[in-house]
Write a structure and sequence with these properties.
eight-stranded antiparallel beta sheet, Rossmann fold, 17 helices, eight-stranded antiparallel beta barrel, 5 domains
Length: 660
Amino acid sequence: MTFHKVLVANRGEIARRILRTCRAMGLETVAICSEADLRAPHVLEADEAVCIGPPPAAESYLRGARIIEAALATGAGAIHPGYGFLSENEAFARAVGDAGLVFVGPTPDAIARMGSKIAAKRLMAEHGVPIVPGYDGRDGQDDAAFLGAVTAMGPGAFPLLIKASAGGGGKGMRIVRRLEDLSAALQAGRREALASFGDDALLVEKYIENPRHIEVQILGDARGNVVHLFERECSIQRRHQKILEEAPSPGVDAALRERLGAAAVAAGKAIGYRSAGTVEFVVDGDLKGIHFLEVNTRLQVEHPVTELVTGHDLVRLQLEIAMGRPLPFTQADLRIQGHAIEARLYAEDPDQDFLPQTGRLVAFDFPEVEGLRLDAGVRAGDEVSIHYDPMLAKVIAWGSDRAEANRRLLAALRGALVHGVTTNLRFLRAVLGHPAWQSGALSTHFIAEHKHALVGLTVDPRRAVRIATVARALTIDAARALLPDLPLGWRNSRFADPEERWLAGDTLIACGHRALGQGRFLTRIAGDDVVVEVLHQSAGPTNELVLKLGDAICRARIVVAGETTYVHLAGDDFRLDLVPRFASGERKVDSGTCQAPMPGKVIAVRVVPGQAVEANQPLVVLEAMKMEHTLEAPAAGTVAEVLVAPGDVVQGGQDLVILK
């Protein structure tokens, strides 16, 4: 099983993470990429790279046969699938072995046993692992079978959770609280499951109110040894996808940790598990009942928190196990050291129900903080496209205890510059600063319960506008070629002071300014005069200014991208768009127009011309970044035009349906 070169069958931060350990072990590396990823960081960091497919780019990393051909052609002896894509594909794992290559992961049989949530639940029940009651599809997958099973469960069946049997990550998942909503939820779940996993099989489970989502990391070797590396708390989720994880869980005591670990090891031994895997549980809000969810037969996105508190490199262990080596420790050797928290940075808008975003990153920079680890798949200048998951990076902090880890992570997020694409950065800062999070009072409903304090956050942008106005004046003066020796702001007339107009979100702010000399400016907003004095300026990709505004001294970092200026101030970010002096003449969007909020593919059209619709009635279902988004009528009216059909690929801002 010895190999010296590894092909990494993935992209982004996943591939970069695996490449890092391969380099540390002295292993040669091969990256793969779609044509959309030719200049991606993971391609540039590998020893070799192979382009495996033209558009559609999202499908390139699913071309198993082509990936195996690339491994053979480059002399790679092993394929590491990362997580996502083909990492839990039994047929791919088997094909890798049949080609004489090593699959860095569990055996195909173990993947097959856990590849179906339905089969996994049955197997765990046979081995005494507690499961959530529900219907596993054994009597059929049509609506009638589900309806019959739910009816048989009695009046206490609801709420229910619909899940895709073949996958996770919230794909295909729906909460159903009424019988009359079951059929529509099943149909939507099947579509999303088929699009994400190529399998539309579903199951339903009793939805446990106020639960915690806790998972246990396991490792197994080819000699039958299985150990656990303790638990991770993964309860902070939106759309049933995790955004904050930590180890250990603040809600798990020694007794519960032992129960969870024992159940996870039993699950691993039941399927003869080899490599790194994760056993997921739903834990009752009272922290007494535990219920098996699934086994993820791969490395998890949140594995860094386990690495930081145990001191073990899970990718190295995966590679060593794939080489046939036994586990280098027993359960008794493992200890938890300190605390680690991971935040997932996504290109999404929390104020629009976490709608994924696209665009070009004009800045991507994080401060140096002790105990900080950054696993990023992008850099400044990269394009965030519709083809892949919108996660940009994982920001992880370790501390001697939870409070220190939280402070370090919050400091990193407050000091981060991520501009050009709307992200959840401000949202993450709000969660880490929330008293309920800091107390450890968590559940999967955390975001819903505290949403008013986490989204729609508004920060007064006037200080940022004054700073942007001064920074713009300095930039224009530095670039002045005509009469360069004239003092900044010199005028030979008594005309009014110049004024800049900025859009901060939907708010228009006009800021007049006058140079007073010696780096001092008088700024005026709505009749309020404030003198801004530039104490220090450092040039570079980021223009950093130390300023005195009135009696306050602050540090600001400025990034200019065309007519947009980004101001990072006091741990917060402001996007300010300079309003042109003259109207552009662009078409004004009618209030009755339904537009695509981002690029994507039309999955379904729910209306026809002439149809009367109510406000918030579904009009179009759009797929973008592997998620379905239902676009609703902005107001009651009549459908005047339907401009798209299922299968159409649309751009952000494109008109889809016209109402009158």
